[in-house]
Structures are given as C-alpha cells and as structure tokens.
Write a structure and sequence with these properties.
Helix content: 55-70%
Number of helices: 20
Structural class: mainly alpha
Keywords: Signal
Radius of gyration: 50 Å
Order of helices and strands: HEEHHHHHHHHEEHHHHHEEEEHHHHHH
Largest sheet: 2 strands, antiparallel
Length: about 600
C-alpha cells in the first residue's frame, strides 16, 4: 500500500518537481632555441582568462617585470653615473635606480593597470555566471520567495515525509486513503488553494446525509474516539506531522536568506537545502560577490593617473545593474545578437591589456632594433678592419717575394727572369778582370723558386683568426637578431591574436635570457665600440700588428723574423741554398 501511495503522490505532484539543470614557431639565437607554447584550447567565454599573460607564461627578468634587462632594452633613464661616480647627486646607484624606476613607472605601470583591470573583469564574469547558475543552473539569490519556498522547502520536505516510512505507522485499513488525502491537501494548499472547497463526490450527497446506512459496533465506535483509529483523525495527525516538517524547513530557508541578504548558501543538496550541508555560508557568497561588483567603482575612485583609468564599460557595470530593467541577470543576456554586457566588458579589458602589452613590446622592439642595428654595423666594421689587416699582410708578403726574387734596386736571388716552371739562374759574384784585360763572370746555380703564404698565414692564424672567428659569430648573431626583431614587430602589429601572443612571448624570453643586445653591449666599457677602437689601434694602427710585422720581416737582421730583409746578404744566400735546383738545402730555408 505504501508503494502505491508514494506512486500516486509523485503522479499528483509531478509538475511541481521540474528543476533547472546546470549547463554542463621556433627561432634560434646564439645557439639557443626559443619556441612558443602551443596555443591553448578554446574555452567557454565564462572561464576564458582575459589576460595576455594567461595564455603564455611570461618570464621573470623579461619585458613585463621591473628589472635591469627591460630597462636596458628600453634605454630609458640613466644606467650609469653622468656626473662622476663621486658626485653625491649623480652617483651610479642613484642613476641606475632612476633608469629602472622610469621603466617601471612610465612603461610597465600601464600594463600593470590594464592587467589588473582585465583580471578583475574576468573574475567578475566568472563570479556573475556562478551567481546566475550556481544552484543546479538556478540563480544563487532569491528571485520569487513564494515559489522558492514551495520548490526548495515544502516540496522536497513533503516528498521526504512520504518516502521515509512515517505513514507506515497508520492503520493498514486506511493508510492508502489517508496518504492520498494528505497529498491532495498539500497539492491544494500549495497549488490550488480554492480547490480544497470542492467535494470530489458526484452522486446524491443529500441522500446520503438524510438516509445514512451504517454498520457499527459499540466497540468499534469507542475505538473511533482515538484519532489514530479513524480516517479523519489520522488524516489530521499525518497532515500536522507533514506541516511541522515543512514549517521547520521553511524557517531554515528563510534564515539562510536573512543571513545572506537574499542569497543562498552553497549547499551539498541545492534541491533540498534543509537536508544538505553548507559548504560556503550565504553571507560569504553575498559579500564576496558584492565586493567583486563594487570593484570598478573603487578602481575608478582611486584613479589618480591617466594610466589608471579603466574602460567605460567596466566602470559603468554597477550602474548597468541598477538601471537595466533586467537587473543583475542582464549582464549575461545578449540583446539583438550583440555580446552580453559582461562579455563586452571582458573583451574591452582584454583588448586594453593586449594593446598596453603591444605598446611595451613595440617600444622594446624599437629600442632593441636601434641598438641591434648599431651593434651590427659596429661588428661589421670590426670584420672589415680584420679583413683589411689580412689583405695588407698578404700584400706585404707578396711584395717581399718580389724583392727577394728580382729586386731591381738591391740584392736579389735570380739573375734571370723566372721561367714558366719557376726556375732561374742565381746571381753570383761580380765579374773580375785579369791583368790581360780578360773579364770573367761567375755563373750562378740553377734555382727552383717556391714561394708560399706561410709567413703571413702564421700571423693571421695566431693573431687575427681568433678575433675574426668571434667577430664573425657576433655578426651572425646580430644579423639573426635583426631578422628576428623584424619578425616580432610584424607579429606584434599583426591582426592575429595568436601571432601577437607568440611574438610577445618570444620577445619576453629573448630579453629575459639576454639574447638581444642592449646598450652596454654596444657602448659600455666592454662594448663592441670599444672593441672596434681596440682592433683598429692594435691591428691597423701606426704601432699595430700589421706595421710591426712588416717591419720585422724587412728590417730584422735575424732569420726569422727578417726573412724579407734583402739588404742582409745572409737572407739572399739562405734563399739561394733553399731553392738550389740540383742540391737544395732545406735546412737553409727561412721558416716563419
């Protein structure tokens, strides 16, 4: 009988139990590879982070942190003492701090403000969606007190009363009718109060009242005096039990609303909060959300700088809530196919943050390109100086060979022109005349001349090659950096959001890892401008490597280094013995 009773109750009350449900490119610089993370998967607007930094993890010491790298990259403020280290008002510490502070206040502050605005706009959207759908898709605040008392107190508690076995204590003779009567009374009171006056009997009620036919005994009549033993009394008892439980649940729900200023708590059983457990008190829900929607007003009130002004949509969000006839729920409702108000707030805040970040990136990139361009020109000049030195050494070596072989103005090796096979007749002593007037001219040996580049190459390998190798590496690195900077500028200024984010992350990584040159790399104490001056002086100067080497070759009286000193007879004789075609003496060959 109990099963039948409960089934009937559910059939009777089925329309009242309809609840809303909860909608469920890599680059290489200086041997270091910089790659962007894969773009994040698309997420529903309700949880899409509005921040540029949310899609990519920016690095400390990058362009979005208050640090020396970013300040150097931007070339803002002073980075060294301008009036002398010991001048109290312009010492190195003060100037260095000034540069970082200028970068922080004049460059990063705008990004910080926009990031704060975007983050709060995103939090507001998430919080508002939670408030609108936090209870199984229903609003977290009271919308209609009467309906909700029925839906969340009376109905669930009455169904529980019917299901928990309480009615099994009735006499089996009328358990079913009493249960149906209690259910009908509940339905009538809560959904059709006037129907309680309607008699369901369709026959001749007057005849029954005037000619009753009844079988009873005195013992049965006495039993009927106990309310639990007659249907009417049992009905009233059962109804009172149900009403007491319902009243208790209603009071619990009213208390929650009162404590939360019209908001529900977060409950383990949102359909029957009287039987669930509170996981977040209602007052916490209400005050937290109130704090969030008051945020734009506080931010607007505290703005005292042009960069602290928030966007108009976000600033007017509270006014929108109280002026729009749709109220709080209007924030998430689309009108005429346009995005909802809260989506517009988040979109504009995100665009503001992205524009601020792009502005910082472009300033960094512009400064970086100027520095990198000057750096590239300087290291190319270093390469040109080293190339000039190499050419001058090799040219001097060729001139030495010409002097050694056939010097028209002084001692030399060959008395005849060089043949096609590089042979010639060596010079011999001067002709002599005997007493009879006969002249005798000695004949020199046959020589096979074998020139080389060994003398200049030794100097090049030992003195110039290390500088040339490091200079070539600097040229390649700088050339790659310039190409990368141009790519980043194109990415940052492009229309693709993914390309923008990728470019921002790459720039941030490059600066954080010091892979883009900064001003001290150019004009600092150890910068390439100083290195260029040093190379030009040490290699090409009047007392530099090239001049000193040529002097040593041509003027020294020892072999080596004076292999080219044709005024030294020992040099001429050494080359003759070295190049003797028929009897070469390799031990006499001058070597570097």
């Amino acid at each position: 009988m109990k099963t039948l009773t409960v089934s009937i109750m559910f059939l009777l009350l089925a329309p009242a139990f309809a609840f809303a449900q909860t909608p469920p490119s890599c680059v290489t610089v200086n041997g270091t590879e910089i790659c962007a993370q894969n773009p994040p998967a698309e997420t529903p607007p309700a949880v899409d982070p509005p921040s540029v930094a949310a899609a990519y993890q920016f690095m400390r010491q990058g362009i979005f942190d208050c640090n020396l790298n970013g300040a150097y990259a931007m070339s803002v403020g002073a980075m060294s003492a301008t009036g002398g280290v010991y001048v109290p008002v312009a010492d190195a510490t003060v100037e260095l701090n000034t540069g970082i502070l200028v970068y922080k206040e004049c460059v990063l502050r705008e990004v910080i403000n926009r990031e704060k605005e975007a983050a709060m706009a995103g939090i507001t959207r998430i919080a508002n969606n939670g408030i609108q759908t936090g209870r199984n898709g229903n609003k977290q605040y009271v919308v209609n007190q009467g309906r909700e008392l029925v839906a969340y107190a009376r109905e669930p508690e009455f169904v529980r009363f019917l299901q928990d076995g309480t009615l099994q204590n009735l006499n089996p003779a009328f358990e079913g009718p009493v249960g149906r009567a209690v259910a009908l009374n509940f339905q009538a009171v809560n959904y059709a109060p006037a129907s309680i006056l309607t008699c369901p009997y369709q026959g001749d009620l007057n005849g029954i009242l005037t000619n009753p036919t009844q079988s009873f005994s005195w013992k049965g009549l006495g039993a009927l005096a106990n309310p639990a033993c007659n249907p009417l009394g049992a009905y009233y008892l059962a109804r009172d039990l149900a009403d007491n439980r319902i009243a208790e649940c209603e009071q619990y729900l009213r208390n929650q609303w009162e404590w939360g200023n019209g908001y529900y708590d977060l409950n383990t059983d949102p359909r029957n909060p009287c039987r669930g457990d509170t996981v977040t008190p209602a007052i916490t829900v209400q005050q937290s959300f109130q704090n969030i929607i008051d945020s734009p007003v506080r931010m607007l009130e505290s703005a005292n700088d042009i960069g602290q002004m928030i966007n108009a949509l976000y600033a007017g969000m509270t006014a929108q809530i109280i002026s729009d006839n749709r109220g709080l729920s209007g924030l998430t409702q689309s009108v005429g196919g346009r995005p909802s108000y809260i989506d517009q707030v988040v979109s504009e805040a995100s665009a503001g943050l992205r524009n601020a970040a792009v502005n910082v990136a472009l300033q960094n990139l512009s400064a970086a390109r100027q520095v990198e361009s000057a750096y590239w020109q300087t290291v190319n000049a270093m390469g040109t100086a080293l190339t000039t030195a190499i050419r001058q050494l090799r040219s001097a070596e060729n001139q030495c060979w010409d002097l050694i072989i056939s010097n028209a103005n002084g001692p030399h090796v060959c008395a005849t022109e060089l043949a096609s096979d590089k042979t010639c007749t060596a010079t011999a002593g001067a002709c002599t005349t005997d007493s009879d007037g006969n002249q005798t001219c000695p004949t020199g040996a046959q020589l096979r001349v074998a020139t080389s580049t060994a003398f200049s190459q030794r100097i090049i390998d030992s003195q110039i090659a290390p500088l040339a190798s490091s200079t070539l590496n600097k040229i390649n690195v700088s050339q790659n950096a310039l190409r990368l900077i141009d790519q980043l500028i194109a990415g940052v200024t492009g229309t693709s959001l993914d390309s923008q984010r990728l470019a921002l992350q790459q720039l941030d990584s490059l600066i954080a890892q010091k892979l883009l040159h900064i001003k001290p790399d150019l004009d600092g104490p150890n910068g390439v401008i100083k290195q260029l001056d040093s190379i030009q002086s040490a290699v090409l100067g009047s007392d530099g490597l090239v001049i000193n080497t040529i002097k040593a070759w041509a003027d020294s009286m020892t072999i080596p280094p004076g292999w080219c000193n044709v005024n030294n007879p020992a040099v001429i004789e050494a080359w003759k013995k070295c190049w003797d075609k028929d009897n070469p003496d390799k031990s006499r060959c001058p070597i570097p």
